[in-house]
Every structure is written in C-alpha cells, then in structure tokens.
Design brief:
Strands 1-2 form a two-stranded antiparallel ribbon. It is an all-alpha fold and 422 residues long. The chain has 16 helices and two strands. It is globular, with a radius of gyration of 21 Å. 77% of the residues lie in helices and 1% in strands. The two termini are 32 Å apart.
Length: 422
C-alpha cells in the first residue's frame, strides 16, 4: 500500500468494533435471558437511528468540513458506550446503547468517504469498489477472531477487546488523518458524496443513506423520466432481498444459541461468513469476474437462498450442527457479497445523471425501510412461529426478487455497467 493510502488503516479497527458490536449485542441480550424478540428490537432500533443520523452527520460534514474532527468524534464517542455496556447488565440498556452507537458511529462515515473520494482519481470502478469492500470485510474478520476464544461466562472480556480496538482507532486517527487546508475542494467533495455513497458504503456496515433536502420536491419530476419504472423495479427487487437478509440474519444468532452453541462457536461462524465475502470481493477486484452483472445478481440470490436452506436442515444433523452452519454462513457470505456488488453497481450506473442524488435518496430509504421491517418481523415470527418458518420466508422473499428483477429488462432496455451490456 502506497504511503498516501496509509490512512486507510483506520478502517480496520473501526470495522472491527462495528462487527464486534453486531455479534456481541445479540449474545449479550441472550445471556441476560432475553429472547429473539429483544434481539429483533435491538437491530430495529439500530436501523431506525441510522437513517436520521446519516442525514445529520452528512449535513454537518458538508457545513463544517472538519474531516478528522468527525472521525475522532465517532471513535472517541464509541468508547463510553462500550464502557456502559460493560458496567450495566440490562437488556433495555443494551438496546439503547446499540441505538446510541448507531448514531455516533455514523459520524465518521461521510468524512471517511470524502477522504476516499479525494484519493480515488481514475481508479477503475470495479477494482476500487472491491478494494474498499475488502478493507471493511477484513476489518470485520479481525473483530470476530478474538470472540472465538470467548465463552459465555467471560463475555465482559470481549468488551475489553472492543475497547482496545477502539483505542487503536483513536490513535490511528490522530496519527494518520490530517486536516485539509483546501476547504473549497472538500466542500465540493461533500456536495457530491450523496452521488458516490452507494459505491463507497453499500458493501460495508457503514450507513448507506445521505441525501439532499429537495428529495420530495423532485419526486414529480422523477416520475416523468423514461427509466423510472425500470429503476423502481430494481429498487423493489433489492428491497425483497434485503428484507430476506434481515429476516434471516436477525434471528440467526438466537437460532444458533438455541442449540447450545458456545459464544466462541458463534463468532467462528461469523468469521467464516466474512471469509466468504472476502473471496467474492477478491474475485471482483482482481478482474476474474466476467460477463453480465445481471447474471451474477441472479446467481447470488440462488446462492443466498441455498444458504438459508442449509441452515433449515442443519438441526436434522444435530451432532454436526456447527459444521453445517459454518458451511451455511460461508455460502451466505458468498451470496451476499456477489449480490451487493452486482446490485449496487447496476443501480449506480443506471441512476447516474441529473437526478441521481434523488434516486439514491429513494433507494436508501427503501433499503432502510426493508431492513427495519425485516428486523422487527424476524423477531416476532421466530418467537411465535419458530425459526424454520422465518428462514423459509427468507428464501421466498429472496427467490421472488429474481422475478421482480427480470421485469426491469422486460421492455428490452439494456443496463450498462463497466462500459459493457450487463
């Protein structure tokens, strides 16, 4: 990595804390005798906070142009939340802390993306997209690995590990992030951040929502454009897959926990998922991916659905349930990464133009809403009807996305990506 890219090292500990929070919060709640509904509420609270937080921090970054300040605010602000989680032993407190983390964590996202855009130059879209995603995935894996040594009676130790990762984030931010003097350049970058946001962020846990204030006023004009039906059809297809993802993922850790898998086993399953995602990002960033992206979109939904099916049948082989779910979540990682790259790039290329920021606003709102609905639905369906029904519904919604996605091509229009027909 060239000297000018050393600052990217901050992504690793930030992503590590984020991934750690994503696993430890459900385990924390379950260890306090909470249930899948409580886990669903925590995930829903997180997703609900992300939406306004993204708007607030995006506007603040554009107004003040203090990139290092907002990154520091995020990483320093995370520290007391981890300490509170360590000191308090309450399900309600855990849900509130997770929501607060969603708000403070989002503060760094626009600033990091502006820094990336300043250095992007002429990097090829596919390669750039893959590299950024890979950095986040590797950071996630690093965050999971210490949890493999975690047992249910020492959950507090993992919180100490998160504090260590967060401290590293603070130090690296001080050392590697410099304040920019060219405020005009930064202001121009932040004005365009909403246009680039899906490419920069949709492959990570970082929030995808950052839009302007004129969204509602432009809806009437958007409806008049020829491509509107096609774009909204693709939005609907993506929303179906995203709903299925949240439906499955929200209940997955409680599902594993219900079969007495240890905390270390659950972290191991998540590490395997991260490895699966990394494989696909390497596949795309090295240029091995050939052909039309719509082909990868369709394949990804089938791969993801098959991972849900493997999880469904895993209890039949109770003695090997850990290994079945390691394979299941590895396959899920492959499917998710392939879907995320193909869907995000197809959408980005097709909405480019005068109103792309407003299309992105709608896209982000649809994705956010489907995530919220998927999270809350998952908790209640699993609690009252069982995990198997939840996972079956995940398959149904994911497979149905293919049929909706195909409708986007029914009028014969081609979708362009990477300079080729997709």
């Amino acid at each position: 990595m060239s000297k000018g890219r050393y600052w990217l090292a901050i992504i690793f500990p930030i992503a590590s804390v984020s991934s750690g929070f994503g696993v430890i919060i459900p385990l924390y709640i379950l260890s306090l005798h909470g249930n899948v509904v409580d886990v669903g509420l925590a995930t829903t609270a997180y997703e609900l906070v992300v939406i306004p937080a993204s708007l607030i921090w995006g506007e603040a970054t554009q107004k003040f142009n203090k990139l290092r300040f907002f990154i520091l605010l995020s990483v320093i602000g995370t520290l007391p939340l981890i300490v509170l989680l360590y000191l308090l032993h309450s399900i309600i407190a855990a849900i509130i802390i997770y929501a607060a983390y969603a708000f403070i964590f989002t503060a760094s996202s626009p600033a990091i993306n502006v820094l990336i855009m300043n250095r992007r130059k002429d990097t090829v879209l596919r390669s750039y997209y893959g590299i950024y995603g890979l950095l986040n995935i590797l950071g996630n894996i690093v965050g999971y690995i210490p949890g493999i040594l975690l047992f249910s009676d020492v959950i507090a130790r993992y919180l100490i590990i998160l504090i260590s990762f967060n401290t590293i984030s603070i130090l690296l931010t001080f050392l590697l992030i410099k304040n920019y003097k060219d405020k005009k350049s930064i202001r121009n970058k932040t004005k365009h951040i909403s246009k680039m946001f899906p490419i920069l962020n949709s492959i990570s846990r970082l929030p995808q929502i950052l839009t302007g204030h004129e969204l509602i006023l432009k809806l009437a004009d958007i409806r008049k454009r020829k491509r509107t039906v096609r774009i909204f059809t693709m939005f609907a297809a993506i929303a179906l897959v995203n709903f299925g993802i949240y439906l499955f993922n929200t209940s997955y850790i409680p599902f594993l926990y219900s079969f007495k898998l240890s905390f270390s086993d659950i972290f191991l399953v998540n590490v395997i998922n991260g490895i699966g995602q990394a494989v696909i990002y390497l596949f795309f960033m090295t240029g091995w991916a050939k052909g039309k992206l719509r082909k990868y979109y369709r394949i990804s939904t089938l791969i993801r659905s098959s991972s849900y099916f493997i999880a469904i049948i895993s209890p039949i082989f109770l003695a090997g349930i850990l290994y079945f779910n390691m394979f299941s979540y590895f396959v899920a990682g492959l499917g998710y990464a392939m879907w995320n790259i193909s869907a995000s790039v197809i959408i980005y290329v097709n909405i480019s133009g005068k109103l792309e920021a407003h299309y992105i606003g709608i896209w982000s709102a649809i994705v956010g809403l489907s995530g919220v609905l998927g999270s809350i639905s998952s908790g209640f369906i699993s609690f009252y009807s069982g995990y198997i029904l939840t996972f079956i519904l995940s398959i149904i919604f994911t497979i149905s996305s293919i049929f909706v996605f195909n409708r986007a091509y029914s009028n014969g229009d081609s979708i362009i990506d990477f300079g080729n027909k997709v």
